[in-house]
Design brief:
The chain has a single domain (about 20-95, about 105-169), classed as Ferritin, core subunit, four-helix bundle (Ferritin, Up-down Bundle). It has five helices and no strands. It has helices spanning about 20-35, 40-65, 70-90, 110-135, 140-169. Helix 1 (about 20-35) packs parallel to helix 3 (about 70-90). The protein starts with 19 loop residues before the first helix and ends with a helix.
Length: about 170
């Protein structure tokens, strides 16, 4: 059985060995390079924004359910990266599409909150796998989607590590 971390984001070189910071910078460059009237790009960016909002929402919940400063710090770091991705996409979205004020739920259990984040990340990565494959190789849309997928994989792997640490005590 494969996991989201086993899948490639697209063609080689689309996500490569970029650091998180480099991937975020690449996203900014892609968004800034696209014509603001490119309806196809805006449509995909809107889908990406919705996915990122869902992930951010469960990450916020997990941050409030954290039972240690270390867990909260890790969740806050992932939330910061997710917010930065949403803000980057917001630059190309029509004004009526709001990516602000993402709600969080209440979950008193760190374990269940972490499980929700992991499940949402896994579902989002799979959804993006389909979206990446539908885009033309070498296109800005495919590259942007691959960068988002790569960062979500990083978050997924971080959550798996947190789960292992929690189970190991």
């Amino acid at each position: 059985m494969s996991t989201p971390s086993d899948h490639n984001a697209g063609s080689p070189g689309e996500s490569g060995g970029l650091s998180k910071r480099e991937a975020l910078e690449r996203m900014v460059a892609i968004v800034e390079s696209v014509e603001p009237t490119n309806a196809r790009f805006i449509s995909v960016a809107t889908v990406l924004g919705a996915i990122l909002r869902r992930v951010l929402s469960v990450q916020k919940t997990a941050a409030t359910a954290a039972i240690s400063l270390g867990q909260q710090t890790i969740m806050d770091q992932m939330r910061s990266e997710m917010s930065e991705m949403i803000e980057t996409l917001g630059k190309v979205l029509p004004e009526q599409v709001s990516l602000e004020k993402v709600p969080s739920g209440e979950e008193p259990s760190w374990w269940f909150a972490l499980s929700e984040v992991t499940q949402e990340l896994e579902a989002s990565i799979e959804q993006l796998s389909v979206l990446v494959r539908q885009q033309e190789k070498g296109s800005a849309i495919r590259d942007l989607t691959a960068q988002v997928q790569r960062l979500l994989r990083e978050h997924y792997n971080t959550c798996l590590e947190q789960a292992r640490n929690w189970m190991d005590g």
